[in-house]
Records
---
Amino acid sequence: MKGVTQQSLAEQTGISLAMLGMIERGTRVPTEEQLVRIADVLAISLAEFK
């Protein structure tokens, strides 16, 4: 939706591509720090994750 690839998001957040995939699939729960980094890159609020 934001036009960001998983690869780009991984590079910009410092979160591995594998970890992002697990978070996206719901097989891994991200830490609050990871959520903040993802939200910052996507320019959204943490509330939008809910």
---
Amino acid sequence: MNNLLTRITQTPGQCSGRPCIRGMRIRVSDILELWVENVSVTEILEDFPDLEPEDIQACLLFAARRTDFTRLTA
């Protein structure tokens, strides 16, 4: 599963340093927003022919890992 995360890159100067997919100028946030708007994976892959199904999985895993943090309670 961690191999999926190697598909996500962050390069200073590219897309303002935001996470992208495999060094392309397709931001993780772009794919996540499409997915939230109920655009199917098939449609996303048709609209972005350079993407692979694993890229979509990588975006979802990246987002999940970014929200997994320890919660402090008093």
